[in-house]
Write a structure and sequence with these properties.
Elements lengths: L3 H9 L4 E5 L5 H10 L5 E5 L8 H7 L12 H10 L3 E4 L10 E4 L5 E3 L4 E2 L2 H12 L6 E4 L8 H13 L8 E4 L9 H7 L2 E5 L2 H11 L8 E5 H32 L3 H9 L22 H16 L12 H26 L8 E5 L15 H10 L3 E5 L11 E2 L2 H5 L4 E4 L11 H8 L5 E4 L6 H6 L3 E4 L13
Parallel strand pairs: 1-2, 1-4, 2-3, 4-7, 7-8, 9-10, 11-12, 11-14, 12-13, 14-15, 15-16
Antiparallel strand pairs: 5-6, 8-9
Helix pairs in contact: 2-4, 5-6, 9-11, 9-12, 12-13
Bound molecules: ligand SAJ.
Length: 478
């Protein structure tokens, strides 16, 4: 016996008109790829005409991408679908009523991860807009990373409240989390496998119809909406955990007088079916907008959905929470290494000049979201140090002066701290750096294993490095 929803969908026919809500780094590539698929007739990009981002509407309709940074193929594809009349950006949400399928790609940051309350305000606004103009048989898909339970819970309630329709009976509802990375947006959507989770079988099937045409090598992985939410948050929680594990190992190696990178090479050599170790890289900290929040979304999901049935070994904290604590500790460990280095150089931190190299959260990028350099800078300034920041990729950052002149930043420095593994820093010359510092024993703190410790020690530096238990107590060369 066909469900009511299946009958409505059959009467409506195949998906032809698509709406994408949220013209950001997830929504724009998704919209142009739907528009480029011959299976679909027309795609609307919905964008609020707000003071901060309303400018995108006219830009997109001219075939210009408002996204920063290089996105191979995006502008050319955008120009093509706009020229072919298959894509248009609009602030008129009433046009949702024309769409057979609507996806929402709206950011879901945390106000303060500690209280586990995400800021869903933008997503809620988007859901209300969609709900107000929702028609029978439409498929609604959340692409944003959300706390497990949101699609079948809050999102469903808002859509039903605004539309007067019933999810799973009058309209289809699913979660298909984005897995895109800046710089490879189109490639990721086409080539990554796509998790597609409906609140019921009919919704899942309808969502598969929507996403299959844009995949090239990627396959569809169907599941329930809540399982899809757990998959997305957990795939990042697992990465955060892997990084925390090697950060913890680095701290142990420092204490045991061992080079963590030798240990890493040894562990990584264990290769073979089912025995390979996924050991990542220790470092000065974990930034970005994915790993710093997705573990908290997962934890909150377990707390809210799991409720009373959630149970850990007596008194234990969730391993994902512990991983976050370790990764958030690493910038403080960099402060500890800096202060220990200054102590060895016989210098007080008060008034010490620190050259902080790297403000982006990831190497060779200008992306500064949740950069671990920020807590380091704040903590060092609290000790009375004067910090100058250098980053070759970052144009500007509110309240922080970012220099693009490395020699100027190094001039007079008592400490050089490498926070981001930009390739520029690999060629840092110890002799020149010492000259520029003008100090007898300047300190270098390497947070990303970028420089050769012996070269700097020979030049008279006091060296400290994450995980470098073999070098952190070296004799100081006169
Ligand atoms: N980091 C380490 N050690 C490592 C790897 C990363 O300290 O071994 C640090 C980086 O310096 C950075 C932070 O962690 O500060 C995050 O790095 P990331 O490589 O995970 O980059 P993200 O945050 O952009 O993660 C994204 C995620 N993609 C999506 O959510 C769609 C993640 O799932 C991907 O695995 C990651 O990109 C990737 O592999 O590029």
């Amino acid at each position: 016996m066909k469900s009511k929803l299946q009958s409505i969908i059959d009467r409506r026919g195949p998906i032809r008109n698509i709406g994408v809500v949220g013209m950001g780094y997830v929504g724009i590539p998704a919209a142009v790829l739907f528009a480029d698929a011959s299976e679909f007739e027309f795609v609307r990009g919905f964008q609020r005409d707000s003071s901060s981002s309303g400018y995108k509407i006219a830009m997109l309709n001219r075939g210009e991408s408002p996204l920063k940074g290089e996105e191979p193929g995006l502008e050319e594809l955008l120009g093509r679908v706009v020229g072919a009349g298959k894509f248009r950006c609009t602030p008129d949400f009433s046009e949702i009523a024309e769409c057979d399928a609507v996806t929402l790609a709206i950011q879901t940051p945390f106000k303060d991860p500690k209280d586990l309350i995400p800021d869903f305000s933008a997503l809620i606004e988007g859901l209300r807009q969609v709900g107000r103009h929702l028609t029978e048989g439409t498929l609604v898909v959340l692409e944003s990373t959300v706390t497990p339970g949101t699609t079948a819970g809050m999102a469903r309630e808002i859509l039903e409240e605004e539309s007067g329709l019933v999810a799973g009976e009058d309209f289809a509802l699913a979660h298909a989390p984005e897995r895109v990375m800046v710089g490879r947006l189109l490639r990721n959507i086409r080539e990554h496998d796509r998790i597609v989770g409906g609140i019921d079988e009919v919704s899942t099937a309808r969502a598969i119809e929507l996403y299959r045409p844009v995949l090239t090598t990627g396959k569809i992985i169907p599941m329930t909406a809540t399982a899809a939410e757990v998959t997305k948050t957990a795939e990042n929680a697992f990465r955060d955990l892997q990084i925390a594990a090697v950060n913890q190992l680095a701290l142990h190696c420092e204490a045991m007088g061992v080079n963590v990178y030798d240990v890493r090479t040894g562990i990584d050599s264990l290769k073979g079916e089912g025995i390979t170790r996924a050991i990542l890289w220790p470092g000065a900290g974990v930034g970005g907008h994915c790993l710093t929040k997705d573990s908290w979304h997962l934890e909150r999901g377990a707390q809210v959905l799991g409720r009373a049935s959630l149970w850990y070994p007596h008194g234990a904290e969730s391993i994902f929470g512990v991983a976050r604590t370790i990764n958030e500790f690493m910038p403080r460990h960099m402060v500890h290494l800096t202060l220990k280095g200054l102590e060895r150089a016989g210098k007080s931190p008060k008034g010490a000049k620190v050259a902080l190299l790297g403000w982006a959260f990831i190497q060779n990028s200008d992306d500064t979201r949740n950069t671990p350099s920020e807590p380091y800078l704040a903590a060092m300034e609290e000790t009375g140090a004067e910090v100058k920041v250098h980053d070759p990729f970052v144009e500007s950052y509110p309240g922080i002066e970012i220099s693009h002149d490395l020699e100027e930043t190094l001039a007079g420095a008592d400490v050089i701290t490498i926070f981001t593994g930009h390739h520029h820093y690999a060629s840092l010359d110890p002799i020149r750096a010492k000259e520029l510092s003008g100090k007898e024993h300047p300190v270098i703190v390497d947070g990303r294993n970028v420089v050769d410790p012996d070269a700097f020690i020979r030049a008279g530096f006091v060296y400290k490095g994450i995980g470098r238990g073999d070098k952190n107590s070296h004799p100081i060369q006169q």
